[in-house]
């Protein structure tokens, strides 16, 4: 506990001297509906409920199921006649499913897109909640109810290369309580298995343009076919931006992460933190080289190394002077033997033209050019404000606090022992 508290303070000092709010007065925590609202399901409570912005982390060692509980709260406060839209690699949460079922039964429309493997079929072994939802909607349609549907994609929805997936992790609500157009984006796979072992963050915003831009790609993904040209899409607004993959092709010139890094000065005032589950391939190499060049120019970089980060990436950024943190370790628990980062997150602060800037990025995009990266469906959001920067750094602190930092090979999932193939269904 002492180590973690010290890490929070040290991390925020490292990242520009930001003051950590007290635990009792943290406005980000106070905004969490799971913390301030009852779990009741009456109409009056839904009418009184509202959402502004939220950010949470599933912490398998200290706060298991936090994101699932937050999702449950949002679902419970979605009124009859509203629509929930889901793009998820898979869904198998005992926390979320009962609330989703109850929402459909009270008249909420649910539209979902799940990864269906090479054959585009329901995957009962890993997506039990998706299978239950499919059956529930099928039964409703047999009684004449319309407005809800489920699509199981054949590999990626918007790109048809082999060994790809519908890898996005997005939940949208046309209305939650009194708030319209709510969007949740991040790296969290909605399942009990993910709750038990994987650090993964999600951010929730009530920004109508974000909602609308994500909906455009959501409805395109429903078609389960590649659109004409390069399916990479981008959008931006006041204090935010979005990018959507696949990117076919991906190059150093059109890579959104490279554009992000090119916009940040390589200077001593620049402080960056990256927590990455998978980082490899030729794309991973050019991102690593760019970050290494920034570090050599004086920027500070801390990297939480996930279980599928290539050793060449570690060597590149470590030799430049980056601080490396272990992002996968054995817990000593027989039922849950590993804890690891599943994040695809980054924070940064920098000074430009005398003004200090802050940013945080959350999403599903692993930094690679394979099935977990640029060839698959991904959604990542960038938020350019001090709240997002400070909040995400606070949520990443427990991973950084873990010791020792051995950075030894760590294989929590069977797929990581294979040299090729699609991402594991627990990613």
TrEMBL record:
Phospholipase D-like domain segment(s): 82-220
Leader peptide range in chain numbering: 1-25
Taxonomic superkingdom: Bacteria
KW Signal (keyword) present: yes
Location of region: Disordered: 404-427
One Pfam family it belongs to: PLDc_2
InterPro entries: PLD-like_dom (IPR025202)
Record keyword Signal present: yes
UniProt entry keywords in alphabetical sequence: Signal
The protein, known as: Phospholipase D-like domain-containing protein
């Amino acid at each position: 506990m002492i180590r973690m508290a010290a890490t929070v303070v040290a991390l925020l000092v490292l990242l520009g001297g930001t003051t950590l709010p007290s635990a009792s007065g943290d406005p980000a925590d106070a905004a969490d509906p799971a913390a301030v609202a009852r779990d009741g399901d009456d109409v009056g409570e839904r009418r009184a409920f509202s959402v502004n912005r939220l950010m949470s982390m599933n912490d398998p060692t200290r706060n298991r199921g936090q994101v699932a509980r937050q999702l449950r709260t949002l679902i419970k406060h979605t009124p009859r006649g509203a629509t929930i839209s889901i793009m998820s690699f898979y869904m198998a949460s005992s926390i979320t499913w009962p609330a989703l079922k109850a929402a459909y039964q009270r008249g909420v429309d649910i539209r979902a897109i799940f990864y269906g493997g090479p054959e585009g079929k329901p995957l009962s072994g890993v997506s039990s909640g998706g299978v239950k939802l499919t059956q529930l909607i099928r039964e409703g349609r047999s009684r004449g109810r319309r407005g809800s549907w489920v699509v199981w994609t054949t590999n990626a929805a918007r790109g048809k290369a082999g060994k790809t997936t519908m890898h996005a992790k997005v939940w949208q609500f046309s209305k939650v309580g009194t708030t319209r157009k709510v969007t949740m984006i991040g790296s969290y796979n909605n399942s009990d298995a993910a709750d038990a072992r994987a650090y993964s963050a999600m951010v929730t915003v009530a920004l109508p343009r974000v909602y609308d831009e994500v909906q455009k790609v959501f409805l395109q993904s429903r078609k389960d076919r590649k659109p004409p040209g390069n399916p990479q899409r981008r959008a931006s607004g006041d204090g935010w931006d979005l990018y959507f993959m696949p990117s076919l092709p991906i190059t150093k010139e059109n890579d959104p992460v490279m554009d992000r890094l090119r916009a940040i000065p390589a200077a001593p005032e620049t402080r960056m933190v990256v927590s990455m589950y998978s980082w490899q391939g030729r794309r991973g190499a050019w991102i690593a080289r760019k970050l290494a060049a920034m570090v050599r120019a004086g920027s500070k970089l801390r990297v939480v190394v996930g279980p599928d980060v290539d050793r060449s990436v570690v060597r590149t950024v470590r030799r430049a002077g980056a601080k490396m943190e272990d992002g996968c370790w054995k817990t000593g628990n027989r039922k849950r033997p590993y804890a690891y980062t599943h994040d695809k997150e980054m924070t940064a602060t920098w000074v430009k033209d005398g003004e200090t800037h802050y940013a945080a990025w959350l999403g599903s995009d692993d930094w690679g050019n394979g099935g977990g990266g640029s060839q698959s469906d991904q959604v990542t959001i960038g938020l350019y404000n001090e709240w997002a920067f400070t909040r995400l750094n606070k949520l990443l602190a427990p991973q950084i606090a873990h010791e020792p930092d051995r950075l030894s090979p760590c294989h929590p999932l069977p797929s990581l022992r294979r040299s090729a193939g699609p991402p594991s269904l627990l990613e």
